[in-house]
Design a protein that fits this description.
With 665 residues, the protein is an all-alpha fold. It is 68% helix and 2% strand. The chain is built from 26 helices and four strands. A two-stranded antiparallel sheet has the order 1-2. Strands 3-4 form a two-stranded parallel ribbon. β3, α25 and β4 form a beta-alpha-beta unit.
Length: 665
């Protein structure tokens, strides 16, 4: 056995043994044992077998991934293993148990170690191709900055906020899964990922806190940040990828998603990795079966998380079509690899969706999606709603910067691909259209319908078809334009679901900004451009980062006291932000104290509360009935939604019944 093969065997075994020790070893409170155990559980059930799965599928052969690819592929594969393993265990009578989990994941890990060791003796040596970087110091510095900014905004004070409505629902259903309720996954109206991930932590460690429940989603979000950097690097250059990733790191939607027990972060990671792998195959069509199968499993994992995971199929199919066309004279390897990948991905996807579609509860899901989300009378115009909501999450300056870079990218395509008169006309029409739409988003309303969709479709079709573009640009504009049109104009209530077109949008903006840097370097010299570019990056990171920290990480709870605590200097177009679809903002209502008082016996009996969602009180009251008719306690909470007349009337009712203040958190 070679030293390399020996290392590939011994290191996973050592990591596996250490994770078991930390999972079961009593630790002092100062070390935050619940977080240490949660991390050990994540290693055993996801990240270790995920890394080995990547090594087994594509790591040993003629075209292995390099270090950067290996890291992000392994992160994505961790969620393949986690979701697949926990889904299988959830189907067992009585639900997943710690012993069954350890047996399943440990055996799977040992099998992968044995496979890697055996393949290491027979697999041909390969080289990991990667574009050369002139100065690795800048590369490492950029990676470190991304890690620091991304981790601070995603992991800082992660456990401070009480579970909010959808989070509490996911954690309650995780508890129900452990208790053996076989149909709980089919009640959820979406994929099972956001239930299965906290189920794994809960079943293996015996406890579930806000921080440990959110940790897998925060880590998926952080991994997605580096996957986007790598994708932009592959498509254009390291600087374009880094700028796109920094936009991602500072984007309020993605920060908010990282800080809640919901599916979006996993969908983002899977989408970026699927496109990254297929683009790699377009440029280096080797090890087709391994890479296509890995991409199919990642796509299926995204779909196991939410139906929105299917949207990445658009760029994926385009890139697969380019690959198939390139290999048309040697089509058999592509065909065989595609069939194997389709079977693997389809089997993984069918493990949940086949029983789900035939379950009677699927009808409620279908009604929810078609009636409450998509609606029945498109087209719609959600431009104003999305603009206002995005400026709340990410500042008005951030949104205007992205829009400006996007328009600059459009004009660049027209001026490079069209003759001067046509380029001038296309540019003038585009600028006029953008200006008019900004001034009056509903300017194309005719009768009961808004037809703003029409000029947007014409614009995006023109951008995709304009000559003298690279494959990379066409794919991004198609990906961005098609999903944006679907989200903004064909969905009645997109709200925060608009995140689905942000990956290609940020990559487009990253490319345009990188081209601007290159233009500046040619005009002023590389040293001056580096100083100006670095200064601009620092200013933007501080401006956007300060806003994100205040709104998402700080325990000041800015959103709860918006008028008094909103940070100065950030211009907005509203007096009070929309109170719907607010996710990820800090909010500590005192529910954890209520739960502890019930546990200690200081509180007993039924209760009522002005909390509108049923899930949050159900989680924190430890199953005590919420019953207004014979309530012995009333919990008055402040929520991110403004205090309503109904809340005041409910409070007055209990005061008339002789209730008086007992305590305040």
């Amino acid at each position: 056995m070679s030293k390399r093969t020996l290392w590939n065997v011994l290191l996973p075994l050592l990591v596996m043994a250490a994770a078991h020790v930390f999972l079961f070893l009593p630790l002092p409170p100062a070390l935050q044992p619940h977080l240490v155990q949660a991390a050990a559980a994540l290693i055993l059930t996801g990240f270790l077998p995920g890394a080995l799965l990547v090594q087994a599928m594509v790591g040993q052969g003629v075209a292995p991934p390099n270090l950067w690819e290996r890291i992000v592929y392994s992160a994505g594969a961790a969620y393949i293993v986690l979701v697949g393993g926990m889904l299988a265990l959830s189907y067992l009578p009585g639900g997943p148990r710690r012993e069954a989990m350890l047996i399943l994941f440990d055996v799977f890990t040992l099998v992968l170690i044995a496979w890697v060791a055996w393949r290491g003796r027979t697999a041909p040596a390969g080289t990991a191709a990667w574009p050369l970087v002139a100065d690795r110091r800048w590369l490492l510095a950029g990676a470190l900055v991304l890690l620091l900014v991304g981790a601070l905004l995603r992991l800082g004070n992660l456990g401070y906020t009480d579970f909010q409505g959808d989070e509490a629902r996911a954690t309650l259903r995780a508890a129900a899964t452990i208790q053996g309720y076989e149909d709980v996954l089919f009640l959820h109206k979406k994929g099972p990922t956001e239930i299965l991930l906290p189920t794994a932590r809960y079943a293996l460690t015996g406890h579930l806190t806000e921080a440990t429940a959110r940790l897998p989603f925060a880590l998926a979000n952080l991994a997605a940040l580096f996957a986007i950097w790598l994708l932009g690097w592959r498509l254009f250059n390291p600087l374009a990828g880094w700028i796109a990733a920094m936009f991602f790191a500072l984007d309020g939607y993605f920060i908010g998603f990282a800080r809640i027990v919901q599916y979006q972060s996993v969908v983002l990671l899977m989408a970026a990795l699927v496109v990254l792998i297929l683009y790699r195959l377009v440029r280096r069509p080797q090890a087709l079966t391994g890479y296509l199968t890995l991409a199919a499993l990642l796509l299926a994992t995204g779909l196991q998380s939410h139906y929105e995971g299917a949207l990445v199929a658009l760029p994926a199919v385009v890139l697969w079509g380019v690959l198939a066309w390139q290999q048309r004279h040697n089509w058999r390897p592509v065909a065989v690899a595609t069939v194997i990948a389709a079977v693997a991905g389809g089997a993984f996807l069918g493990a949940f969706y086949l029983p789900y579609v035939f379950n009677p509860r699927f009808a409620a899901t279908y009604y929810y999606l078609t009636d409450r989300r998509i609606g029945g009378s498109p087209p719609y115009n959600n431009l104003l709603d999305v603009f206002l909501r995005t400026t709340l999450y990410s500042t008005t300056y951030y949104v205007l910067l992205l829009v400006g870079l996007t328009v600059a990218g459009m004009l660049r395509i027209f001026w490079r691909g069209l003759r001067r008169p046509w380029a001038l006309l296309a540019s003038a029409v585009t600028l006029l259209f953008v200006a008019v739409t900004f001034a009056n988003p509903g300017w194309l309303t005719v009768g009961d319908h808004d037809w703003i969709i029409v000029p947007f479709v014409v614009l995006f079709v023109a951008l995709v078809l304009t000559p003298k573009q690279s494959l990379e640009e066409r794919v991004l504009w198609l990906w961005f334009g098609a999903i944006m049109v679907l989200a903004l104009f064909l969905t009645e209530k997109p709200r925060t679901h608009v995140y689905t077109f942000f990956i290609p949008w940020l990559l487009i903006c990253g490319q345009v900004a990188a081209l601007g840097y290159g233009w500046l370097a040619r005009r002023t010299g590389s040293r001056t451009a580096m100083i100006v570019g670095s200064a601009a990056a620092v200013v933007l990171v501080l401006v956007f980062g300060n806003y994100a920290y205040r709104y998402f990480v700080s325990t000041d709870e800015v959103m709860l006291n918006y008028a008094e605590l909103k940070p100065p200097g950030y211009w907005v177009t509203y007096d009070e932000p929309d109170n719907k679809a607010r996710f990820g903002f800090p909010l500590n209502n005192g529910w954890k104290v209520v739960g502890e008082l019930y546990r200690q016996g200081d509180l007993t009996g039924h209760f009522d509360t002005n909390e509108k969602e049923a899930w949050v009180p159900a989680w924190y009251s430890r199953g005590v009935d919420r019953c207004p008719r014979d309530a012995e306690w009333f919990f008055e909470i402040r929520n991110l939604e403004p205090w309503s007349t109904d809340d005041a009337l409910k409070m007055e009712h209990y005061l008339r019944q002789g209730f008086e203040k007992w305590g305040k958190v």
